[in-house]
């Protein structure tokens, strides 16, 4: 099915789809999928995505507290106080941590209070210890006048009861877990982690624990791609290295589609075995192939398909190309399957850096240029790492990458580029 409206040439080959368009075609299809949810404890909730809004059931803090060590006072008793004309206050009580203060503050008196202590009734502010001089056990001089509310966090100042603390579709960060803990919430309803099935193909591929042998190369892709998938919160099932004999390959991809939420195989996406990858996706269910071939380098021969609600990707065999395709297409799809709101996706951190050598690019393709970063006189500099898309060490050496757009023919030494950082 030519659902991506990709035209074919006289030999039946499809044209390349621009990267942004390919991503839109994919993500539009994933927009309305239903995601299963589960209820889990805060301790397990880091990086999970909320499936419903969370509303504060109580004020935080639930009562006014001091933000300084000092004396709880009625601010009006300190008005106009200075070093030369201090206010004298009677110490009539002490606030102890963890217990509500006893009694209530009278005009002209104060309570000792620690940072975090609950304000006694009638007190409206706290004088820092540093702005007082002890007279004796029962009296203190206040040498600086303060306004009402000084050094106090009021009831609900942090968050008020009834206010939405977190929206649905939000990936929970450490700070969010802290907010929920502060509100006394332990159980959260989150989307289930997407399950990803990974398949490697190619007669030359052997397990990385095998000794080297003539004509064989070790399976790099399943390891790097599984790690990338785990980084975006998925659970991974490795279906191993599968023969590209059609019935064996088809049966394995079919099982992965049955058992997981997103499947990718690497290798076999280019001309050599292209038909096998294409045929497999088409046989597995509708709508089948969405895109085959994008204006991306490396990563051009990617196949993007959808088989009865399950995205299936044929990633290029070259390890760098497979990783780049993961960044551009698989990760956004995993995020969509995680239930994360599109606008809420964590942007890849990036920095501006000075390009240290000119790079040419063919118009019509989006080039992903790996770089090493260093600093010179407080400025970031980036050094392109040249190497083939089969060389995994180029990725391992890279701190990040920058892009040369489809409409550009290259960038000159000295230009500023935006470098996206590899984690
Ligand atoms: N005539 C053409 N040849 C190729 C084209 C083209 O347009 N015309 N495209 C090239 C590009 S670009 C890429 S990328 C590759 C994509 O190849 P495939 O996706 O079909 O993958 P293979 O041919 O099976 O493998 C390519 C390369 O990667 C190695 N490989 C495969 N799987 C793994 C793995 N799991 N771990 C490590 N390395 C792996 C494989 O041994 C090959 O060396 O095609 C170009 N050719
Ligand atoms: O696009 Mo291939 O993916 O350059 O190496």
Automatic annotation (TrEMBL):
<dbReference type="GO" id="GO:0006777">
    <property type="term" value="P:Mo-molybdopterin cofactor biosynthetic process"/>
</dbReference>
<dbReference type="InterPro" id="IPR038987">
    <property type="entry name" value="MoeA-like"/>
</dbReference>
<dbReference type="GO" id="GO:0061599">
    <property type="term" value="F:molybdopterin molybdotransferase activity"/>
</dbReference>
<comment type="pathway">
    <text>Cofactor biosynthesis; molybdopterin biosynthesis.</text>
</comment>
<keyword id="KW-0479">Metal-binding</keyword>
<keyword id="KW-0500">Molybdenum</keyword>
<protein>
    <recommendedName>
        <fullName>Molybdopterin molybdenumtransferase</fullName>
        <ecNumber>2.10.1.1</ecNumber>
    </recommendedName>
</protein>
<keyword id="KW-0501">Molybdenum cofactor biosynthesis</keyword>
<dbReference type="InterPro" id="IPR005110">
    <property type="entry name" value="MoeA_linker/N"/>
</dbReference>
<dbReference type="GO" id="GO:0046872">
    <property type="term" value="F:metal ion binding"/>
</dbReference>
<dbReference type="Pfam" id="PF03454">
    <property type="entry name" value="MoeA_C"/>
</dbReference>
<dbReference type="GO" id="GO:0005829">
    <property type="term" value="C:cytosol"/>
</dbReference>
<dbReference type="Pfam" id="PF03453">
    <property type="entry name" value="MoeA_N"/>
</dbReference>
<comment type="similarity">
    <text>Belongs to the MoeA family.</text>
</comment>
<dbReference type="InterPro" id="IPR036688">
    <property type="entry name" value="MoeA_C_domain_IV_sf"/>
</dbReference>
<dbReference type="InterPro" id="IPR036425">
    <property type="entry name" value="MoaB/Mog-like_dom_sf"/>
</dbReference>
<comment type="function">
    <text>Catalyzes the insertion of molybdate into adenylated molybdopterin with the concomitant release of AMP.</text>
</comment>
<keyword id="KW-0808">Transferase</keyword>
<dbReference type="InterPro" id="IPR036135">
    <property type="entry name" value="MoeA_linker/N_sf"/>
</dbReference>
<dbReference type="Pfam" id="PF00994">
    <property type="entry name" value="MoCF_biosynth"/>
</dbReference>
<dbReference type="InterPro" id="IPR001453">
    <property type="entry name" value="MoaB/Mog_dom"/>
</dbReference>
<keyword id="KW-0460">Magnesium</keyword>
<dbReference type="InterPro" id="IPR005111">
    <property type="entry name" value="MoeA_C_domain_IV"/>
</dbReference>
<feature type="domain" description="MoaB/Mog">
    <location>
        <begin position="197"/>
        <end position="336"/>
    </location>
</feature>
<dbReference type="InterPro" id="IPR008284">
    <property type="entry name" value="MoCF_biosynth_CS"/>
</dbReference>
């Amino acid at each position: 099915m030519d659902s991506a409206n990709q035209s074919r040439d006289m030999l039946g080959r499809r044209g390349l789809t621009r990267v942004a368009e390919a991503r839109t075609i994919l993500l539009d299809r994933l927009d309305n999928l239903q995601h299963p949810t589960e209820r889990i404890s805060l301790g397990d909730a880091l990086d999970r995505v909320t499936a419903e809004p969370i509303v504060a059931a109580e004020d935080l803090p639930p009562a006014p507290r001091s933000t300084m060590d000092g004396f709880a006072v009625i601010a009006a008793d300190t008005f106009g106080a200075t070093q030369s004309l201090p206010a004298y206050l009677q110490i009539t009580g002490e606030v102890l941590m963890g217990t509500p203060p006893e009694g209530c503050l009278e005009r002209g008196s104060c309570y000792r209070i620690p940072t975090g202590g609950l304000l006694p009734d009638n007190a409206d502010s706290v004088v820092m210890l540093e702005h007082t001089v002890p007279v004796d056990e029962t009296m203190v001089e206040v040498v600086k006048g303060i306004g009402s509310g000084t050094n106090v966090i009021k009831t609900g100042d942090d968050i008020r009861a009834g206010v939405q603390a977190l929206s649905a579709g939000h990936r929970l960060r450490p700070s969010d877990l802290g907010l929920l803990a502060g509100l006394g919430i332990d159980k959260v309803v989150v989307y289930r982690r997407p399950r990803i099935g990974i398949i490697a193909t190619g007669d030359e591929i052997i397990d990385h624990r095998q000794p080297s042998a003539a004509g064989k190369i070790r399976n790099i892709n399943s390891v790097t791609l599984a790690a990338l998938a785990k980084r975006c919160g998925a659970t991974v099932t490795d279906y191993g290295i599968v023969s590209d004999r059609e019935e064996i390959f088809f049966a394995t991809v079919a099982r992965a589609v049955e058992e997981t939420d997103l499947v990718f195989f690497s290798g076999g996406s280019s001309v050599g075995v292209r038909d096998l990858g294409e045929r497999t996706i088409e046989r597995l269910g509708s709508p089948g192939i969405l895109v085959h071939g994008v204006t991306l380098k490396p990563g051009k021969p990617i196949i993007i398909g959808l088989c009865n609600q399950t995205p299936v990707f044929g990633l290029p065999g070259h390890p760098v190309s497979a990783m780049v395709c993961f960044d551009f297409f698989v990760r956004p799809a995993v995020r969509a399957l995680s239930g994360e709101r599109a606008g809420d996706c964590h942007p890849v951190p990036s920095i501006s850096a000075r390009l240290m050598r000119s790079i040419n690019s063919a118009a019509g393709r989006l080039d992903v240029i790996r770089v090493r970063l260093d600093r010179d006189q407080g400025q970031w500099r980036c050094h392109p790492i040249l190497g083939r898309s089969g060389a995994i060490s180029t990725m391992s050496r890279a701190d990040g990458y920058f892009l040369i757009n489809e409409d550009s023919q290259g960038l000159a030494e000295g230009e500023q580029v935006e470098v996206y950082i590899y984690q």
